[in-house]
Amino acid sequence: MAARKSCTHMTWSEAKSKSGDYDTSKKKKKSVIQVNHGQALTAKIVRKSSAPPEFSKAELRRAKKQEEKALALAVKLAEEREAERREREGRTVCPFDMAREQMTLEAKRRQQQQLQHESNITESDGCCLDLEQIAQCREMQLDEIAALDAIYTDTDEFLLSSHADVDGLRAKIDEWQEHDGGNNCDEALLSSIAQHPPLSFGLQLTIEDNNNTLNDGGLDLVATLLLQVVLPPLYPESSLPHITVAYFAVTDRSMQISANKSLESLVHLEEEGLVQELGEQAREIVPLPCIYELATTWLTDHIFEYCNLRTHAQLSA
To answer: Dihedral of the CA atoms 229, 242, 106, 273 (nearest 10)?
Structure first.
């Protein structure tokens, strides 16, 4: 009873301090933040100002007009391209004219092309007489080129290579001839003549199938042919000219095709057989000049014998 009495005489604060482990936080109530109307309105304004900007009606109208203009311009350009395509499809061209144009472009390109050659004539290859033979052949080559130039004057059918330096070779030949007709042999000058770059040129030929070799007259066939010719040092006495077919197409002179279509030859050329036969024909003519004879006579009569009509051309005949 004495102990109980001593406890009952303790005050509440004394009991709390004596216990020590009493957790006062459990008794605390959560505080409620009081926000008045002015603060709430201020927070709302701040949220609106931080949001993405809104366009005005005037700005939206201007943007819409610009979009409509861009769309109208795109439609206009598409219509113009379509009209151009239809016009191109409706426009026709002559394949023969296209072949002539392509051949001329190829001939002019080759005219500016420098030949890669390695001369096999050196000072140790023989006596002065061998070099004199080359000089004589070079002189004959210059005469043949001068004749071809005169025959095809005022045309672009004969195109001499721009790297042939015909004037330089002619000056050397004239100097050699001044030495008593070549009797006083100047080996250095003769070697210079022998080492001169090969003379080369292109011949643009247009040959009609007058004999109707490929058809019975249903097609007006024309061959467009570019021959590239290189004259070796000993031509025409003991060498043959190097002849290659640089361009070839056979077209119908009366045909018209759409301008947007590419050119296609109506025949297939047996090029290997043609070049081989040209060499055989040249062998029968040398030591005389043979280029003009091959180009104007033999090719005119025999070119279509080395052509085979393609299937679509046979159906058109």
So the answer is: 120
